[in-house]
Amino acid sequence: MTASSGATAPIGPRTVPFGEAFRFWLKLGFISFGGPAGQIAIMHRELVERRRWISEDRFLHALNYCMLLPGPEAQQLATYVGWLLHRVRGGLVAGGLFVLPSVFVLLGLSWAYASHGETPLVTGLLAGFRPVVVAIVCEALLRIGGRAIRRKAHLAIAIAAFVAIYWVGVPFPVIVVVAAFAGWLGSRWAPEAFTQPPRAAAPEARAGGGEALPLVIDDTSPSPPHTIPSGARLLGTAAVGVALWVAGALLLVGWRGQESLHAQQYAFFTKAAFVTFGGAYAVLAYVAQAAVDSFGWLTSAQTVDGLALAETTPGPLIMVVQFVGFMAAWNLPGDLTPLASGVIGALVTSFATFLPCFLFIFVGAPYIEVLRQNRGLAAALTGVTAAVVGVILNLALVFGGAVLFPAGRGFDAYAAAAAVAAFVVLQRFRVDVLWVVLGGGLLGLGAGALGS
Q: Could you tell me if residue 4 is inside a domain?
């Protein structure tokens, strides 16, 4: 992925110095709590409303493409905007700083969970976290559903996706492909039934309460020179991405062996990065099913705990897969210590998960820039987003069953009450997810102390 040398060509009435952008992306990496919805909201407020680096329509166009991709849409959106502003180096900085703080924070939390998970302190915290996770997934279901399902056709796609994955066991990638095709086909046969209503425009930002700040990238700005697609650029960018992946595979196989757990993780999470569409909740549904049922790397309860820990850290919620990678390698260390095996598993998982994310942006974004008015692409996206609603409903039922009906203990009335309370706080009072998770942990500590 090579960047052109020299200064960035102007792409609007004003430009953003690279140093200013670097400082913003660094700050964003430490404040991006609240899962994908919260992170996108932060970027919208900062990039569209406050700083006016990009217009509402261009922001939503980039977001639509990122939602169509497998992987974390918020991280890919940051990469896309960084690339628009400052070419490849801007995308690398924006996407990389979005992830790096959470890599190290979650690594520490994973170690604490694995080594001290049976202590009363950790047990109480997790008992409080788990019902909150159920509430978070349910709230995400309503929030994403409200955004994605505004036509009867999209409701039908969501219901069909839920039936397919919950009752029939259709693989998630197949559901995504069918939903995208259904959306595209619907846009040609019945466009009024598949086209989403327009969104309201964002308010203009003001400099010191005076005149509106001029946009850096507005709706009518021509694509900057570095966004024009070409065959040579496509092949060169793809070649660099493939070379990086092959180098990682050769290093890992040469060190740990082709049949090692870490090599299996590298292959599995690479596959997951290419087939798990719809954001973190959809990714977790696929990864949890494979890691628990197919590979036996960890338990369903541990995946719920991992999501709770990921909710307490900044960065993309898809970082929960790093927890899965850590716990799998910790549980099956082979000839290594559990800690060494877990750290390798976590880093292997993160590298395999995020390398394709950068590749999707640097390869695909130039073409998406020239397809901003393509209705078929937008309709395919809405079909995928509707299907994701059905998949998240499946995830809510799976997590709800594991938390409300723990194995061998029957119905857990405390967990049910805590989940309902957390849902009300999230949905009715709009309290930040981080504080709800931490509050659930404190309640879990208190309940554990009373019961002991």
A: no
